[in-house]
Design brief:
Layout (H helix, E strand, L loop, with lengths): L4 H4 L3 H17 L1 H29 L1 H19 L6 H12 L3 H9 L5 H32 L8
C-alpha cells in the first residue's frame, strides 16, 4: 500500500506517537526503562548505521550526485571573489553545508519514504566530507597566525 498521510497521522503522527508511548511506559516502569536505556541506545545506533549502509547501497548513483553537489558547492564558495582567505574558507564551508532541517521537512511530506533516508545519508556524507576539510582549514589558519617561538640559545 502506498504511503498515506491519513493512515499514519500526517507528519506529527510518526513523531509524537512513539514519544507519547515512551513517556507513558517511563511513567509506569521507571526502573525498567533505566535498565533498558543502554540497550535501546545501542540498538538505535546500530539501526542508524544499517539505514545509512543500506541507503548507500540502494541509492549509489544518488549519493554520487550528492557528493558532486557538496564538492562543487565547497569549491564555488571557496573561489568566491573575497581576497581574504578566512572569508573564503568560511564561505566555502557554509555554501557546501545544506540546510538539512528544511530538507527533512520537505522529504517527510513527500509520498516516497526513501527520500527521508536519502536526506539522512546526505547529512552523513556532508559530515564525512566537511569535518576533515574544516579541520584542515583550522590547522592551516593556526599555522599562519601562530606566534613565533622565541629562539633559546
Amino acid at each position: 500500500m502506498p504511503y498515506s498521510r491519513d493512515r499514519y497521522g500526517g507528519i506529527p503522527g510518526p513523531l509524537l506517537l512513539p514519544l507519547a508511548a515512551g513517556q507513558v511506559i517511563y511513567g509506569h516502569y521507571e526502573e525498567t526503562t533505566a535498565d533498558l536505556q543502554p540497550l535501546m541506545s545501542r540498538a538505535s545506533s546500530i539501526s542508524l548505521i544499517f539505514l545509512l549502509v543500506l541507503t548507500t547501497l540502494l541509492n549509489f548513483s544518488s549519493l554520487i550526485a550528492l557528493l558532486l553537489l557538496v564538492l562543487v558547492a565547497l569549491a564555488l564558495g571557496y573561489l568566491a571573489v573575497s581576497p581574504d582567505l578566512g572569508i573564503r574558507r568560511v564561505l566555502g564551508l557554509s555554501t557546501a553545508q545544506r540546510n538539512l532541517s528544511v530538507a527533512f521537512v520537505v522529504a517527510g511530506s513527500l509520498p516516497n519514504p526513501n527520500v527521508v533516508a536519502l536526506v539522512a545519508a546526505a547529512e552523513a556524507l556532508m559530515l564525512v566530507i566537511l569535518m576533515p576539510v574544516a579541520g584542515d582549514f583550522s590547522k592551516r589558519a593556526r599555522a599562519v597566525t601562530a606566534p613565533a617561538r622565541p629562539h633559546i640559545i
